[in-house]
Amino acid sequence: MDAIILQILNGLDKGSAYALIALGLTLIFGTLGVVNFAHGALFMIGAFVAVSLQRLFGMSFEQIDETKTDFLGNPLKVNVPYVDSWFGPDVGEWLIDWSVPLAILVAIPVMLLVGFVMERGLIKHFYKRPHADQILVTFGLAIVLQELIKYFFGANPIQTGAPDAFTGSFDFGRLIGFDPNVIIYPYWRLVYFAFAAVVIGAVFSFLRFTTFGMVVRAGMADRETVELLGINIDRRFTIMFGIAAAVAGIAGVMYTPILAPNYHMGMDFLVLSFVVVVVGGMGSLPGAVAAGFLLGILQSFASMNEIKAIVPGIDQVIIYLVAIIILLTRPRGLLGRAGVMED
Amino acid sequence: MGILEVKGVGKRFGGLQALSDVNLSVAEHSVHAIIGPNGAGKSTLLNVFVGKLIPDTGSVMFNGQSVLGRKPHEINQMGISRVFQTPEIFGDLTVMENVMISCFAKRDGAFRLHAFRTVAHEADIVEHAEQVLEDVNMLDKRNMHAASMSRGDKRRLEMAMCLSQDPQLLLLDEPTAGMARADTNNTIALLKEINQKRDITMVIIEHDMHVVFSLADRITVLAQGTPLVEDTPERIKGHPKVKEAYLGESA
Amino acid sequence: MRLLGLSRKDTRFLLIVIFLTMATPILLQPFPEGSGLATFNAGYPDLMQRFAIFGIFAIGFNILFGLTGYLSFGHAAFLGVGSYTVVWMYKLLDYNVVYGLPLAVAVSAVFAVVIGYVSLRRSGIYFSILTLAFAQMSYNLAYSVLTPLTNGETGLQVYGNDPQVLLGATEANSPHFFGWVMNDNFWEPVIGGWKFTFNNGYYFTAIIAIIAFYVSLRIFRSPFGLMLRAIKTNQTRLNYTGINTRPYTLAAFVISGMYAGLAGGLMAAMDPLAGAERMQWTASGEVVLMTILGGAGTLMGPILGAGFIKYFENIFSKINDSVLHGWFGFLPDGLEDFLIGVSHFFVGKSWHLTLGLLFMLVVVFLPGGLVEGGQRIAAMFRKKSGGKDDAAHQPKPAPHVAE
């Protein structure tokens, strides 16, 4: 029992990331009818916004600290972050410590802008082109973005820490009546799950309860009719693309303490997120979220030693295996609509 | 005993009874028209004939063999060809290639791995395809891209593809939909010729009464998924039930 | 002139390909050794072998994607299977590639039948995702539980204690074809400042590549090829015309899988190693790029695409600071530094950036790939010379159609 709960918990954070990326992917697909292979790159850009902010806050200058001396008795040179000298050490240290969550505030406008530029500059011209062309051009874009990140940040993963307050783990098992130290769960992963739940909830309520969202949902169902009503659906779709980019971006920001950002993380997550979207059903928002968590949790179950002992290698293939089975038995994925992308 | 025997066919989509107890017998060599108001189930019935839909009840026999549960390509190989409402052709290929494909399908069956032959060297196919194109007056367009042709030409091409297979039964779904009067008359003439010279049985779904009355030997009136009457064109014209269900509306 | 049952035009295509492949060691060595432009030379064995091998891979992929329009994102799996098969034959029998290569084709055909049978039950992006899933599964398994078969991260290679039951006392200790050792060069003339290398392995792969091209040429012109093109255009019509499309697509999938297996086998024939990274989805993506860049559905496209990408990959990644200084050295310092700084984005390790940009440009402006570009240029010249057949007045051929 405790092992099961532990695996479900372990699957949640990965599932959250899949769900957030897949949500944006399927939103773009459902609204614009575009298959965006560069969506993983948006996740990656978000992660590197966090890296940049942490670096920016960490930028420092050398100062001679009169109060300390080195072992020769000379005054010690220390590196003082600019933020410390501007805002005082308290605020400065707090800023550095909390740079990852703070990066969300930076990432949202940055990602919206990236999304707008992408949609207006490139994607717009591919609405009427075949899906294969869309896949190919966004695939090219993904390579370009990935290489740019590699150029500026190097090929090695960059450790980016969570705020000190969240670095430890807590004993989840004791909370629900198990023995101590049986179900240990890092704080940050719990934060990530809560964060994902809030974002998903926000996106859903935005689509459900605002006029804007209503128009977008109507457009997803039947684009032509909405256009006939004289509503400028294009502009809304541009905004939708920006929102999808922002969701992927902040998902990337918050994921940095869990996985040290590297330039190929976008591609890694893209492949899995695509599987998630297809399993959930192309164009289905609840499907994407459900499939994201389902596959995340299944993956962590499959990596249990007990399971691996029975079926060797299952942890390596579970996601793909499930995808194959679902696609063959439920051609439109878990919650997909008929007739989407079948030609 | 007709070439196509439909008995007790019913089909339900959720809460909608699209077809119920359809009985129909198409005599060999005849032109049999199916008419009826919108939503009467004409297209559903046609989709049952070609294997796209499987009815909940009833049987459809072609030449004494059931067509139910068979795939579209199997039904075609039995000798039933279909012309679509909007012409379905191979747009990226040339007119000649379009016709050759159906000639190959007739000669080689549903699948044959002729990977090391050369299309241009298949003399019998080339000759046959050219003959068919000549018959529909399209030989001069043989090297044109099919997609770049007018709608009327596309329709004629589709008809030529069906003819090249020398089917026993030709199903036509509104063959003159969206056509100008002149084109419609040409199509009528072409269809008449096909029926008489080639002896191909036809089932035709049509809205245009002019077309129906100039072609059909027998007419079935479908209303709300059930055949109302079946008779010769002359008697359908004056039939009170038909007037009420169908012609009455437009009159 | 007509050859081997080909039309006049196709004979010309074949002769061009034969000429290009046979003369590659000379054509790719246009600059004298030691000159500033020698960086652009590509006439050395390793690279030329890769041209031929990836040419075969792309030609095969084009039979599936170019003709039927089914976009597979998993063809690298067959590449890996081919390589592993050949290395296993080295380990068990001996270094003669004659056992491994046919077996590589056969084994990848078996894999292709299984993967194709399942994946082809769906079309469109669902098909792409299914093939991707199969390839990623193969890749992950090759790295983990299949280590006894694949030697995991180290990669499969021949060790001293392998059985090699057929190994003769005087036999070469590296891949060969009945004593024709792949690594050896049979002629290395130096003419003037030019140095040419005629390599056994290259000519071995080149001859196979020519045969592979000839086979694809025949398939393109065959009734089977016509059906594949019809599948891409309108599957509904084809079904109602009495054609069962499934076996046709499966046959195309298996044939292209066999080509990929052959290419993978040849990789191991040139360098007796096989690693799981050959199966990764990025490798599948690469062959997609080659085919599109050259022109999907065209005969010459995949070859051009493969050559183009492999050439620039090699050349661009070779360009480093000292080469750039050599080029821009004559400029004033500030400008020199600026140009070198800008170039940095595109050369050396950043070559993929160039590839990505180039690829986007092709998809946006030249959907028919390099072949379409060539046709447009040719049409422009024809117009200028005022030739009789005015290309503009012909019906415009749709992109992705064989020519």
Automatic annotation (TrEMBL), chain A:
A GO term for molecular function: transmembrane transporter activity
Broad class of the protein's primary localization: membrane
Entry's transmembrane regions: 16-35, 42-61, 102-123, 135-153, 190-216, 237-258, 270-297, 309-328
Top-level division of the source organism's lineage: Bacteria
A single GO BP: amino acid transport
PANTHER family linked: ABC TRANSPORTER ATP-BINDING PROTEIN (PTHR11795:SF442), BRANCHED-CHAIN AMINO ACID TRANSPORT SYSTEM PERMEASE PROTEIN LIVH (PTHR11795)
Similarity comment text for this entry: Belongs to the binding-protein-dependent transport system permease family. LivHM subfamily.
Protein name in UniProt: Branched-chain amino acid ABC transporter permease
Natural source organism: Maritimibacter fusiformis
Automatic annotation (TrEMBL), chain B:
Record-linked InterPro entries: AAA+_ATPase, ABC_AA/LPS_Transport, ABC_transporter-like_ATP-bd, BCA_ABC_TP_C, P-loop_NTPase
Keyword Transport: yes
GO molecular function: ATP binding; ATP hydrolysis activity
GO CC annotation terms, alphabetical: plasma membrane
Pfam family, one: ABC_tran
SMART domains referenced in this protein's UniProt entry, alphabetically: AAA
Keyword list, A-Z: ATP-binding, Nucleotide-binding, Transport
Stretches assigned to the ABC transporter domain: 4-249
Keyword ATP-binding: yes
PANTHER family tied to this protein: CONSERVED COMPONENT OF ABC TRANSPORTER FOR NATURAL AMINO ACIDS-RELATED
The protein's name in its UniProt record: ABC transporter ATP-binding protein
